[in-house]
Amino acid sequence: MKSDVNRADRPFRVEVECDEGVADVRAEIYRMDPNGERIATVLRDTLDQLYDGRRTGRWELSQLFKAEKESVGPLVEINLQREFRFEDGIRTDYKIAGVEVDCKYSVSFGDWQLLPEAVNRVALVVHADEKSAKWCAGLIPVKPEYVNNGIGMINALTLSGCGVRRIEWLWGGFQKLAPNLFIELDQVIRERILGARATRGEKHGQARVNELFRQVHGRIIRRAELATVAQQDDFMKRARDNGGARTHLRPEGILILGHQRKEVEIAQALGLPIPRLGEFVAARVVPERPGRSDHVAAIAGSRWIVAGPDDPYGVAAPVVPR
């Protein structure tokens, strides 16, 4: 079987030997996850789980302790099994479509370490990179000629160059990973958000959330990102009305939308990304002016558009009806 992988954004261009077992595992994974979205979600959620931003304020791998970094792979493997309910393998991690499958995750592409028990079985290799916001997963029949000699006390095997080239990349190679806001942000803006201090009796967490929605517009804010900024148990409340960011930022013309049906309709009308459960998107809005925008939202009896850099400040955002 040939895998047409573009080298510009794919691991390799290869011809893959599709041994018996690999095809069955691939077919079962495609049946359960036709476009890879479930694996992508597991990877994003696992990284966020490790950062534990609500308690620690951390947001990247370099901030983790050594033991935590070493737990990334095992935790990915556990969370994949929880998501897909793979059977336990006898000598490997999983049994998929009746085939013994060893799962290995590596922070660095190509550095998958396999136990000797994986030889002559199928391996599912997974990798994610936060900086490029991409991930990939592939299958390989672990033949002796595809691995290097064992290393370390556990005699771990690594894939040789030949072995890496024999990986069959699922879904064609690298796929998009939900981006990490804090890596994307300019350092000055990131420090302004995370360093915001309370005034007028606010909590510091509320001040940071206010600054988050003041600075980040037109981009989905994920639940874990909001928790990292707020660092409070009631972090979702910090984005909403009744004293949250919606209340604080409305006089500045900033509209904060969540996953409720009316808010989703407004986001669509304004041409903004669509929030899902637990997500938000913010934008500064102004009353419609003819010819200014194709994206117009009717809110509380008035028509609004996303503000441009030349639009005046000081126009309060509307209250979204419940």
From TrEMBL:
**Which keywords accompany this UniProt record?**
Endonuclease, Hydrolase, Nuclease
Tell me what this protein is called: Type-2 restriction enzyme NaeI
InterPro entries this protein is in? DNA_rep_MutH/T2_RE_sf (IPR037057), NaeI (IPR015210), Restrct_endonuc-II-like (IPR011335), WH-like_DNA-bd_sf (IPR036388)
Q: What is its EC number?
A: 3.1.21.4
CDD domains cross-referenced by the UniProt entry: NaeI-like
Q: Which residues cross the membrane?
A: none
> What's the name of its gene?
naeIR
A GO molecular-function term, please?
type II site-specific deoxyribonuclease activity
